[in-house]
Amino acid sequence: MKKTTKTDLVQGTHIEAALSFANVIGKAAATLALPPGFSTVAGVMLDLVVNRTLSQRGNQFALEVIERVQAQEDQGKPNLQEILQEESAAALMLRATEAAMRSSGQRKFDALREAAIKGLLSSEARSASPAQIVIGILDRMTEHHIILLQWENDKNNKLYTLKDMSDPKNDKAQRSRFYGQPVYTDKSLLKNPSCIAMINDDFNAFVERDDQISFELASSDLISLGLLEPVYRSELYDDDRRVTRIRKTSEIEKYKISKLGVFVYDYISGDKIMTT
């Protein structure tokens, strides 16, 4: 099977032409225009998108899902046509494609693609309910949401000392103050700089204020969705027997990814096929 590349999509292939004009020439003629190996599965896809105007982003999304599902077929998994015979699975594919068309940014595109593939190939594919909910959540997210969720799930994150962060060569330490994203010591490089860390008199960290606000909004949204949960500060106290114990206070120290957040993260990353 000829592999379709992103360059092919940019330059305009028979696949793109067939999808783009499906609403005019109909799925039968469009399927004939597809390269060998794509006719059956792409014909099923066109059942979902016929009479709809697809952008290049939507075309690319659908084709990447097709290619990944076809790779699973070679390992004895059900083919796309069998999967999409289930109404809920077909609805999932259509909803994911529409969400990809409305979105911007590569991280969100990748997250939607992974969620769609896992939903179609999971043991719950007949109902596709968890995947549909994840797709719905992703649809309202931005790149900032995805970056935050990935950052909070990364178990390799570490706490850096002020000495680490003040080292001009320690880029990872400086980025740790901004979810792994670039920070600047020279605020003249930014349009609307905002100081996120005053490390010492000679070394401060700056970011674009719009990015800072976007992350703050995304964080609040993830908390409201239950994907981040509070970690309450603990304190020592002596009980009546003069025994020192630890208890949680009502003061929130920070937020961490919740079990639901991990579940969503698993849907949007890696090659793991969901089983629950």
Strand pairing plus helix content: what structural class?
alpha+beta
Spans of at least 5 consecutive residues with low confidence: 4-34
Proportion of residues in helical segments: 40-55%
- Count of DSSP-assigned helices: 14
Give the strand order of the largest sheet, numbering strands 1, 2, ... along the chain. Answer: 1-2
Total count of strands: 4
Radius of gyration: 24 Å
Secondary-structure element series: HHHHHHHHHHHHEEHEEH
Strand content: 5-15%
- Distance from N terminus to C terminus (CA atoms, Å) equals 32 Å
Largest sheet: number of strands, sense, barrel closure: 2 strands, antiparallel
Shape: globular
Overall residue-averaged pLDDT value = 77
Explain what this protein looks like in three dimensions:
This is DUF4393 domain-containing protein. The protein is an alpha+beta fold and 276 residues long. The chain has helices at residues 6-11, 14-20, 22-32, 39-49, 56-73, 80-83, 87-102, 106-121, 129-140, 143-153, 162-165, 171-175, 209-224, 259-268; strands at residues 193-200, 203-208, 228-238, 244-257. The strands form 2 sheets. The protein has a two-stranded antiparallel sheet with strand order 1-2. Strand 3 and strand 4 form a beta hairpin. The longest helix has 18 residues, at 56-73. The two termini are 32 Å apart. Mean pLDDT is 77; it is low at 4-34.
